[in-house]
Amino acid sequence: MESSSELDRLLFFEQARKISEATYASNPLDADNLTRWAGALLELSQFQSVPDSQKMIQDAISKLEEAFSINPKKHDALWCMGNAQASFAFLTNKEGEAKPYFEKVAQYFQQAVDEDPRNEIYLKSLEISAKVVLSPYLNSYFFVRRYGVIECDPLVRKGLEKTVSSL
C-alpha cells in the first residue's frame, strides 16, 4: 500500500461491503444496496491479486445482475456494470477473451445514458469506452500481457495516456 489515503480507501470500502452484506441479509430486494455492494467490491478488487480481483469483480457482476432482476432500468447499476465489465476485461490475458467484456462496456454505458441522458459521468464514460476500445494501443496492451510483461510497455502507456488525454 502506497499511502495512508489508500489504506483509508481500503478500510472505507471494506466497511461499505460489510454494511451492504448485513443489509442484504435483512432486505435482499434492495436494488440500491446491491448496487452499493457491487461498487464496494469493484473498489476493493483494485487491492487484490489478479485472480482474487477477477473473483471479486465476478461477485460484483452477480450483485448487479441481482439488482437488475429487481429494477432492470437502474441507471447507476447499469453504469457500474459497464465499469465491472471493463475492469474484468483489462484483467484477462488474451484479447479474444476480453473482447466480449469490452463489447458489453459500451452497451451498459449506453443503457445508463438512455435512462439518465443528462448525467455527464455516463456520457463521458460512453465516449471514453468507444475511444479506448477502438484504440490501436489496446491490441499492444494485450501483446504485452500475453508475453508476461508485468509493467505496461512505455509506448503502450504513452498511447493510452494520449488516447485518454485527447478525450
CATH superfamily of the domain at 4-101: Tetratricopeptide repeat domain
Radius of gyration over all CA atoms, rounded: 17 Å
Helix content: over 70%
Low-confidence stretches: 140-157
Helix run count: 8
CATH topology of the domain at 4-101: Serine Threonine Protein Phosphatase 5, Tetratricopeptide repeat
Q: What general outline do the C-alpha atoms trace? A: globular
Q: Which architecture name of the domain at 4-101 does CATH use?
A: Alpha Horseshoe
Largest sheet: none
Strand fraction equals under 5%
CATH class category label of the domain at 4-101 = Mainly Alpha
Concise structural overview:
The protein is an all-alpha fold. It has helices at 4-26, 31-45, 50-70, 75-90, 95-115, 120-134, 136-146, 154-165.
Architecture overview:
With 167 residues, the protein is mainly α. The protein has a domain at 4-101: Tetratricopeptide repeat domain (Serine Threonine Protein Phosphatase 5, Tetratricopeptide repeat, Alpha Horseshoe). 80% of the residues lie in helices and 0% in strands. It contains 8 helices and no strands. It has helices spanning 4-26, 31-45, 50-70, 75-90, 95-115, 120-134, 136-146, 154-165. Helix 7 runs antiparallel to helix 8.
Quick tags:
167 residues, mainly alpha, Serine Threonine Protein Phosphatase 5, Tetratricopeptide repeat, 8 helices, globular
